[in-house]
Each structure stands twice: as C-alpha cells, then as structure tokens.
Specification:
- This protein is of the alpha/beta class.
- It is about 50% helix and about 5% strand.
- It has 3 domains: about 140 residues, Rossmann fold (3-Layer(aba) Sandwich), CATH 3.40.50; about 80 residues, Serine Threonine Protein Phosphatase 5, Tetratricopeptide repeat (Alpha Horseshoe), CATH 1.25.40.80; about 140 residues, DNA Cyclobutane Dipyrimidine Photolyase, subunit A, domain 3.
- It has a 6-stranded mixed sheet, with helices on both faces.
- Helix 3 crosses helix 8 and helix 18 runs antiparallel to helix 19.
- The structure holds flavin-adenine dinucleotide.
C-alpha cells in the first residue's frame, strides 16, 4: 500500500491485545482516502478485533466560534453515518482528549490507539497528554500530507525551493491510490451514537458571537462536488487565480483544513483531468509544496506564531525599523470593524467577515498593511492571527500561521529593497493591486452593508 508504513509514527510501540482498535480522529475528518482509518482497520482485521472511531470535542479551540464548529460538526455527522454503513461505530465525546479518551479506552477495553498527524502545538500537547494517560500501543499516521511531514525533512526548511526538491524525490512513492475502508467484520457490540450538531453546539456552549454561514455546506460529499466543479475550470487557475474579482481558485481550503477531503485525492484527480499542464503545475505547487511547507514550518517551529519564529534577517530588519513613523495607526477593534482609510483593505476584511473566506491574493495585502498600520511587528502578528482565526473558515491552520509569518515576518521569503517600517520585508501597495486587477470592482463587491 503506497508508502503506508512510512506514514506511521509510533508514539508507543506494541502489539494489540484482544480488545478493539480505536482510531482517535482529529484533523482528518473523513472516511474516504484516510490512511489513518486504513491502518486502524488493517490492524484490527489482522488481529480479528472490532474497530471504533472516536472524536473528542473540546468546547473551546483557539478562538473558534459556531461558524467553524458548525461546519466541522455537520461534516462529522456525515462521517458517523458513513461509518455506520461500514459497521464501524463512531462516538463524538464532549471534552478535552486527555480527560475523555483514557476513560473511553478503559471502559471499552481498547487495545491499540491510532490518531492522525497535526503539527499545531495544542494537538502535540493533546497527543502527549493522552500518551501519558494510557498504556496501550499508540500510533500516529500522517494522512494530511501527501509526503509525510516527519519523513520529507527532519528540520525546518528555508523555503519552497528547498522543500520542493525533497518532495519531488519522494512524491512518486506516495502519490498513488488510497485503499477504501471496508465493512468491518468484527462487531464492537454496541452502535455509535448519532451525531446531533445543534445539540452539541448548545451542550458545549460554543461561542455564538459568530453564527454559522448560510450556504456553506460541509462534508465529504460537498468537498467532492467543489473539487469536481473546480476541475472544469482548472485551466483558469494559471491566469486568474491572483484576481480577487474572478473565480480562479479552487475554494477547497475549508475542506482541506477540516480534512473533509484528502489533498492526495485532489492531486490525483488534478493529474488525471484534461486541463493544461501549466495550470495543473501551478495548482499542484500550492496544494503540495506550499501547503506541506506550512506543516514543515509549524512542526519544526513550536513557537510558529511569534516574532521569534521569523528568520534572523527579518527580525533584524524589523527591529531596525521599529521606531519608524507610522502614517496610520489602528487598534485591533478598528481593524476588525474595517474602519481604515483604505477601501481595498476594508473590502478584504469585509469579505472575510461576511463570507468566511478572504481571497488568497488579498490575504497577503491584508496582512502586510496590518504591519504598516500597527505600533509594532508583534502587535501586527497578534492582530492578524486573531482576525484570521476568528473569521476565516479555514483559520487555525498551519497555512494561516505560515502565511501571516510570510507576510509580516519574511518567512520562506528573501530580503527586498529597504523601506520605511517594513525594512527588507516584501512590500505590497494599493497601486500594485490596481495594476493587477480591477480594485474598484472588488471594493464594490464588499463594501459595508453589501
Ligand atoms: C496572510 C495569509 C493568511 C492565510 N491564512 C490561511 C488560513 O488560515 N488557512 C489556509 O488554509 N490558508 C491560509 N493562507 C494560504 C492561502 O491564502 C489559502 O490557502 C488559499 O487562499 C485558500 O483558497 P483556495 O483553497 O481557493 O486556494 P487554491 O489557490 O485553490 O489552492 C489550493 C490549496 O493549496 C493550498 N495553498 C494555496 N495557497 C497556499 C499558500 N500560500 N500557502 C500554503 N498553502 C496554500 C491550500 O491548502 C489551498 O486550499 C493564508 C495566506 C496568507 C498570505
């Protein structure tokens, strides 16, 4: 099975006993194309034991509100239903993993635990806490990256140019078909509980200050439909993806973020479709190299969301320009209310607030202007992360932390010509945007009250 062995990282080695195997699903919330589920089932079948999938749901998670929780829970409801059809029970348990998983494992005599890979600090802590509390074999499977993050490199990479080479060498051994989960032949003895998203949102008292986004449909089925419609216009990716007034991008990021679709499936379908090679290549560069570079950054930089994580040259140049005069200074509240002097920036902020997804090109401009208009790089970083994680449906993702660090702190970039406030950090301007796309049309689409 295409490199499955190299996706597995033993947290605690060992053979299972006679009890069921449990897959603690976390980042990769899907049934299709899920290597962690495949490994858990394969292990359970080899030992002739039942298989169960468990998801622990904490009531707070890095500032997520009903906007993100609702999307996740509606996707998980479909996971529970599909697993039921395969005789694999699914349990969503309210509470922090270290509190609820050991009890679940004990009560159900689980003999081996599998989870998926996630480079975020909180997830690493959860895994460590659970590993300390349970005494059974425990394995992590990287089913988010096409080439496993721990394998492709053992250090933080300098940039896309260094990771691209490493990924390129390994990709042919990993980019193959993924086996499907089967109907499970060994009975767990009790059925999973149907998942009730509304009931859980209330029970967990999830922050209701941001409601769910009407029209944003979650789940594997919708993710596949979004992919299919993107493949029909993939040719436009090469020419239109940097134009925020056009529909050139895939809009797959919320589905990739919640693991409702596998990046490997997306890459396989893109390779097979009839689009131009240039469009395919530029999309696969983002989907594979840039996305996996973000996991590499967060995995090997545990303080990925701080000034100290920026490259040395960037910290130095930002320090040299700390005292530069700012023509505009905005508080986090003013930024949040899109109350700046710049209608283009305000439109980007309003697009994110109202739709849950700012266009990719505007994300760079948006974050760079926050650096220009706040008192320090630290304040800029903290405001950008707060706003990104609060409003984007795909927020709290390694791509977000890397993208913000790229914009504000020169991560994975090089020094550019020196200027006020930015020092040698790459600059973006309103006029630069106006030379690339119809800024008036974008501003018109996302003005206050629209
Ligand atoms: C300041 C800033 C903040 C960002 N915040 C997030 C975030 O919170 N969550 C998030 O998923 N992405 C984030 N990105 C990365 C990127 O902008 C989005 O992934 C992309 O715009 C999502 O739209 P799409 O799925 O239509 O992208 P497409 O262009 O269709 O790309 C397909 C996929 O490739 C990956 N990808 C594309 N661009 C990048 C990139 N620059 N870096 C890493 N991966 C990429 C994503 O997984 C994306 O879904 C951020 C970028 C910046 C500069």
């Amino acid at each position: 099975m295409y490199g499955l062995g190299n996706r597995i990282y033993p947290i605690r080695h060992g053979e299972p006993g006679h009890g069921p195997v449990a897959y603690w699903m976390s980042r990769d919330q899907r049934v299709s194309d899920n290597w962690a589920l495949v490994f858990a089932q394969d292990t359970a079948i080899r030992h002739a034991v039942p298989l169960v999938v468990v998801f622990s749901i904490a009531g707070t998670f890095l500032g997520a509100s009903r906007r993100q929780y609702g999307f996740m829970l509606r996707g998980l409801k479909q996971v529970a239903e599909r697993l039921k059809g395969l005789s694999i029970p699914f349990f969503a348990i309210p509470g922090e993993p270290a509190r609820v998983l050991p009890e679940f494992i004990e009560r159900n005599s689980i003999s081996l635990l599998v989870t998926d890979f996630d480079p975020l600090r909180i997830k690493a802590r959860w895994r460590e806490d659970v590993a300390r509390a349970v005494h059974i074999p425990f394995y992590e499977v990287d089913t988010h990256n096409i080439v496993p993050c721990r394998l492709v490199s053992d250090k933080r990479e300098y940039g896309a140019y260094t990771l691209r080479k490493k990924i390129g060498k390994l990709l042919p051994s990993f980019l193959g078909e993924i086996p499907a989960a089967q109907g499970h032949p060994y009975d767990f003895g009790r059925e999973g509980k149907p998942l009730d998203p509304d009931g859980l949102l209330d029970l967990l008292r999830v922050d209701a200050s941001l409601k769910e986004l009407p029209g944003r449909i979650a789940g594997e089925k919708e993710a596949a439909a979004v992919l299919s419609s993107f493949l029909d216009h993939l040719d436009r990716y090469g020419t239109e993806r940097n134009d925020p007034t056009r529909n050139g991008q895939s809009r797959l990021s919320p589905y990739l973020h919640f693991g409702q679709i596998s990046a490997q499936r997306v890459a396989l379908e893109v390779k097979r479709c009839h689009a131009k090679d240039t469009a395919k290549e530029s999309f696969l560069e983002e989907l594979i190299v840039r996305r996996e570079l973000s996991d590499n950054y967060c995995h090997y930089t545990p303080h990925y969301d701080s000034f100290a994580a920026f490259p040395e040259w960037a910290r130095k140049t930002l320090d040299d320009h700390r005292r530069d005069k700012r023509d505009y200074l905005y508080s986090r509240d003013e930024l949040e209310l899109a109350a700046t002097h710049d209608p283009l920036w305000n439109a980007a902020q309003l697009q994110m607030v109202s739709t849950g997804s700012m266009h990719g090109y505007m994300r760079m401009y948006w974050a760079k202007k926050i650096l220009e208009w706040t008192a320090s790089p630290e304040e800029a970083l903290s405001a950008a992360i707060y706003l990104n994680d609060r409003y984007q449906l795909d927020g709290r993702d390694p791509n977000g932390y890397a993208g913000i660090a790229w914009s504000i702190g020169g991560l994975h970039d090089r020094p550019w010509g020196e200027r006020n406030i930015f020092g040698k950090i790459r600059y973006m301007s309103y006029n630069g945007c106006a030379s690339k796309f119809n800024v008036k049309r974008y501003i018109e689409a996302f003005k206050p009250g629209v």
